[in-house]
Every structure is written in C-alpha cells, then in structure tokens.
Write a structure and sequence with these properties.
Shape: globular
CATH topology: Rossmann fold
CATH architecture: 3-Layer(aba) Sandwich
Strand order of the largest sheet: 1-4-3-5-6-7
Order of helices and strands: EEEHHEHEHEHEHHE
C-alpha cells in the first residue's frame, strides 16, 4: 500500500494481501459503516509498524491484512500516514489536515518511549489534540487507538493515557503489550523482512505478529452488512 508517497500512502501493494480466515471477536465491538453509496474509508495513522516493518512483505503487514479482510464485507478505500521512527507529534503534524474517514486506526506512541522519552503530560496533550483533530473532521467515525508495542511494564504509563483519551462511545482502545510479550510474534533477527537492509529485527512484529495485530483490530469492529463481522 505504500505507493503515493514515502510516508503518505493509499491503494494496495502490488501483491494482494490475504484476508484472515477467521477473526477472534472481542466484547463491545464498535459499529462501522460506509457512507450511503460510498466505500468504507479507513485512515491509518502510525509508525513503522503501520508501514509494515518486520513483515515479510507489505501484503503481510497488519494494515493490509486488516484492509483485505474488511473488503470481504464492504468496499473499502484505505489511506495511511505513517513514518518509521516517528513520534506521535510528528505523525499528527504530517496528517494535518485530517482526511475524511468512517474508521480511523491510530498506532502511535511506541517511539515516544525512545530516549529522551516524551513526558507523560506532554504525550497526553498531544494525544488529546490528535483525537480532537480527527473528531473535528470525522465526528461520527469509529476510532480505534492501539497501545504501544512495548513490554507491559514500560507500556503502562503511555497505554493509560491512550486508553483515557480514547474512551468515548465511538472509540475503542486496544492494548498491544501482551502481544509484544509473546516472543513467537517477534523476530528472529536477521530474517528476510521489511527492515534495514532487507532484514528484520527482534523488536518489530513478524508475520505472525502482524496477523495477530490485524486480528485484534478486526475483532473490535462490527462492519455493516456482515452481522458476524469480517
């Protein structure tokens, strides 16, 4: 899907992603529907994980797998603003002005733990501002906010902010730290993957990790036109 620009992309990768065969449903799913007569517009805001880092190909990234699965229920048009190594504030600035969408997926904050870490109070303000900017353009959109890709002990302060700021009726918070804890979903370092010199590391999710993230995202969505979800 990375095709329109280096960090802003739309459309699909050359090799089509394969939809998930089944999705683990989560409690309290959020309804998602396209506008009358139109496609479901999905906006992804994220960092290297949203760009697909760690996956074997872009088609194996959580973003493309999730979008391919959504397309089984609804005609879907996706757009992403993502940059490897970027902090929340950087991607928020890149995403301005926010584009219209019925579903917004935010995967940001992981790089805010890099030294020097973004102070929690500042991170809270930045996340609140981003949600406000999204809501100003898309007041009725479903917004899914993913937690940071870190061990639970390190993720907790930032995840608490994300959960607080993503607590409205049309929003859902999804933690990722438990997936990070599963070492089968990351690495091994040196594998052929999207990464530095074509190699993956032991930090970014591998194909199984990206699939698990896609499954979690889809599990909280109730797509109109498909009563059992994607």
């Amino acid at each position: 899907m990375v095709g329109c620009a280096a960090v802003v992309s739309c459309g699909s990768s050359e090799e089509p992603a394969q939809p998930l065969k089944s999705v683990t449903r989560l409690p309290d799913p959020i309804d998602v529907a396209a506008t009358a007569g139109g496609d479901l517009r999905v906006l992804y805001l994220g960092d290297s994980i949203t760009r697909g880092s760690g996956a074997a190909t872009y088609a194996d990234s959580f973003r493309e797998v999730a979008t391919a699965t959504m397309k089984q229920a609804l005609a879907t048009d996706d757009h992403s603003v993502a940059k490897g190594g970027a902090r929340l504030a950087q991607v928020a600035a890149m995403a301005t002005p926010v584009v219209p969408a019925e579903l917004v997926v935010i995967e940001l904050g992981t790089n805010d733990l890099l030294a020097p870490p973004t102070p929690i109070d500042e991170f809270r303000r930045q996340y609140r501002d981003l949600i406000g900017a999204v809501r100003a353009v898309n007041p009725s959109a479903a917004v899914v906010c993913m937690g940071v890709w870190r061990p639970p002990s390190k993720a907790e302060p930032y995840d608490s902010v994300i959960a607080d700021e993503c607590g409205s009726a049309r929003s859902r918070y999804l933690p990722l730290s438990d997936l990070f804890q599963d070492t089968q979903l990351r690495g091994p370092a040196g594998r052929e993957a999207l990464g530095t010199n074509g190699e993956g590391d032991d930090f970014h999710p591998n194909d199984r990790g990206h699939s698990a993230i896609a499954n979690r995202l889809l599990g909280v969505l109730q797509l109109a036109g498909n009563s059992s979800g994607p």
